[in-house]
């Protein structure tokens, strides 16, 4: 009873207050919803702690059981310990912390992101084919946008940036609006299902 | 095996090598291609121009190192503009690494002789995504008790008259998108739509621009800078050419190389396809 009904009642009660607060002038609902919203950063901060503990446990287990690639887990644990110790003892402005951020975290993050350009180049060569009318339209609009978004496109044609902007402003916005409206309707229906208890996956139910 | 059949089976490593060379050359020796400023960038620029001296700007550095190459130039260009307008900056972030990007970018304020706590403040990271944005919009103190140095918010001079989002003159989110943070759409839903007197300007990656464009057309956001090119255009409008302009040559080279591969791949495909059909028949 407590395990199944209580979470559903809490979900319904909080959801109902949020809806009342949004659609009606009800100071009592505004007070309660404001209070509940102020809890969110605290709850999220705890989930970060839980996530961190989970990450450490998983990698500690990998090291202790010497699973293949365990040395990568050692690297993660050492990097984690060093960063946390420096951050907590010396602060975020300490030269050591700034060094880690600029020369390790920033550099590796930017590298990972930059790799996508190489994959796009390779996949464009292998898979982006004008096989039919739809694919050809996609290919041509993609090509115009790619040229229109960089200075070299202006050498091909001075109209290129404006054509690219037209594609972004008209066909793109039309399609995006359709997707957004459909998503909004889907979102409302999904929220109602959760509030009314038809969808219980967040409580661990199979469906 | 014909030339085109061999071309279709080209090792991916050759493609990566050509891409690398294509991007590296303009980075080593920039060409300095001229750049045309488009209307969307001018619109964002004009919105900042409207600010009065001493205007309060909430700037959220919602990006991690992955998006920094595109988004950091947007932050830098906008902060240069805010500095010229003598605006006060309230830096926050919904991404843990964002605190460091705020720190790095705010050095421009420090270098200009602005005082921490009076002209700019770094309030740091807030957890909680959309709900936290709603909460801080209603009451800053419900989310931020101290700045990143641990100074209580009530002891920071520039926080004295700031209680909720209505006290801001502009909100800027430089945003990398999904990933547990407050996305660009969150700032639209929780700030632009609710606090209609506070103009919201968004800086996003190029890949996110199509998703955000409808909010600009509807007038819900007052400015949109999508990717590196608008950052470069912003630098041109400021007459302060920096990293973004320098990187545009490399982006031109990358786009041309990718387009070249797409054209080459299609030529090879259409030359080889009829041959394969004949063989099948």
Would you kindly provide a written description of the structure presented here, covering whatever features stand out?
The complex is a heterodimer of chains A (207) and B (281). The model of chain A has no long low-confidence stretch (mean pLDDT 89). Chain A is 81% helix and 0% strand. Chain A is an all-alpha fold and 207 residues long. Chain A is extended and about 65 Å long. Chain B is α/β, with parallel strands linked by helices and 281 residues long. A six-stranded parallel beta sheet of chain B has the order 3-2-1-4-5-6, with helices on both faces. Helices cover 53% and strands 12% of the residues of chain B. Chain B contains eleven helices and six strands. In chain B, helix 6 packs parallel to helix 8. Chain B has two domains: 57 residues; 207 residues, Rossmann fold. Chains A and B meet through helix 2, helix 4, helix 5, helix 6 and helix 7 of A and helix 2, helix 4, helix 5, helix 6 and helix 9 of B.
């Amino acid at each position: 009873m407590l395990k199944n009904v209580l979470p559903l009642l809490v979900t319904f009660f909080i959801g109902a207050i949020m809806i009342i607060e949004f659609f009606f002038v009800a100071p009592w609902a505004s007070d309660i919803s404001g209070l509940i919203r102020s809890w969110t950063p605290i709850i999220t901060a705890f989930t970060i702690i839980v996530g961190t503990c989970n990450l450490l446990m998983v990698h500690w287990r990998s090291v202790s059981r010497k699973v293949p690639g365990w040395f990568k887990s050692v690297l993660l644990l050492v990097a984690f310990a060093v960063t946390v110790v420096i951050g907590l003892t010396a602060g975020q402005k300490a030269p050591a912390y700034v060094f880690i951020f600029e020369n390790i975290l920033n550099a590796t993050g930017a590298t990972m992101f930059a790799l996508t350009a190489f994959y796009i180049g390779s996949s464009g060569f292998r898979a982006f084919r004008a096989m039919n009318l739809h694919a050809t339209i996609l290919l041509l609009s993609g090509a115009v946008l790619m040229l229109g978004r960089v200075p070299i496109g202006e050498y091909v044609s001075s109209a290129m940036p404006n054509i690219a902007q037209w594609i972004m402003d008209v066909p793109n916005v039309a399609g995006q609006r359709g997707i957004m409206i459909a998503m909004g309707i889907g979102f409302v229906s999904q929220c109602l299902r959760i509030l009314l208890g038809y969808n219980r996956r967040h409580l661990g139910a199979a469906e | 095996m014909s030339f085109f059949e061999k071309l279709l089976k080209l090792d991916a490593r050759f493609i990566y090598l050509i891409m690398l060379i294509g991007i590296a050359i303009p980075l080593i020796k920039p060409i300095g291609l001229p750049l045309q400023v488009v209307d969307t960038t001018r619109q964002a620029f004009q919105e900042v121009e409207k600010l009065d001296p001493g205007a309060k700007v909430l700037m959220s550095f919602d990006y991690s190192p992955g998006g920094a190459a595109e988004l950091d130039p947007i932050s830098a260009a906008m902060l240069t503009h805010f500095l010229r307008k003598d605006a006060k900056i309230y830096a926050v972030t919904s991404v843990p690494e964002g605190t460091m990007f705020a720190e790095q970018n705010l050095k421009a304020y420090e270098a200009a002789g602005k005082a921490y706590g009076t002209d700019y403040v770094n309030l740091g990271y807030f957890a909680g995504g959309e709900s936290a944005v709603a909460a801080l919009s209603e009451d800053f103190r419900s989310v931020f008790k101290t700045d990143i140095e641990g100074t209580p918010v009530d002891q920071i001079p520039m926080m004295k008259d700031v209680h909720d989002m209505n006290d801001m003159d502009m909100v800027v989110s430089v945003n990398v998108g999904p990933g547990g943070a407050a996305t660009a759409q969150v700032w639209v839903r929780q700030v632009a739509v609710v606090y209609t007197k506070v103009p919201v300007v968004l800086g996003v990656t190029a890949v996110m621009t199509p998703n955000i464009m409808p909010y600009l057309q509807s007038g819900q956001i007052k400015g949109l800078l999508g990717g590196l090119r608008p950052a470069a255009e912003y630098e041109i409008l400021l007459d302060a050419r920096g990293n973004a302009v320098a990187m545009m040559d490399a982006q031109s080279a990358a786009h041309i190389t990718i387009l070249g591969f797409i054209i080459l791949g299609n030529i090879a495909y259409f030359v080889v396809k009829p041959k394969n059909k004949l063989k099948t028949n």
